[in-house]
Specification:
This protein is mainly alpha-helical and about 160 residues long. About 45% of the residues lie in helices and about 0% in strands. The chain has 6 helices and no strands. It is globular, with a radius of gyration of 14 Å.
Length: about 160
């Protein structure tokens, strides 16, 4: 099911159907590119605006108490996450996709389709809303959406 949703989202992104839902927010290069969590994990020298030690809890995502242990996790730790069962497992998967999306959106050399802070439809608000549900399926759905964007193709070496 997640593969089907990811494929549909990828097609919709390619067709530009999410332009109204996710407008740009400050980066000049908006488009249909995205680098994977694996890319960002192994190319930390290409990070812009964030460091490997940037904390998830410092991003104004309002991480709920039920998964409060993620507040102290770093961006690099999130990129290394492998998932698991329950809400914590889903949060691990979500934060891996979220961090890659933030790094994509922050990099002027990546034409990522989503922006971090612009209203309406910004990543930050999307993440806040999803985290507040404290629902495993909602976490995995947003992770799949962001993964589709993170896999659009990386223009960086």
């Amino acid at each position: 099911m997640r593969k089907v949703i990811g494929a549909i989202i990828s097609i919709a992104l390619t067709a530009g159907l999410f332009a109204v839902l996710a407008p740009s927010a400050g980066a000049v290069n908006i488009g249909e590119e995205g680098c994977t969590p694996g890319y960002w994990k192994t190319h930390t020298s290409n990070w812009e605006e964030y460091t490997t030690g940037s904390k998830l809890g410092n991003q104004n995502w309002d991480i709920p108490a039920s998964i409060g242990s993620f507040n102290d996790k770093t961006f690099l730790q999130a990129l290394k996450g492998t998932g698991g069962t329950g809400l914590n497992g889903a949060a691990t998967i979500l934060f891996r996709a979220v961090v890659a999306s933030y790094l994509n959106a922050a990099h002027e050399g990546v034409g990522f389709p989503y922006r971090r802070f612009q209203d309406p439809g910004n990543l930050q608000e999307w993440i806040r809303t999803t985290l507040a549900t404290e629902n495993r399926d909602a976490y995995l759905e947003l992770a799949a959406t962001l993964d589709a964007a993170n896999n659009l193709g990386c223009p960086l070496n």
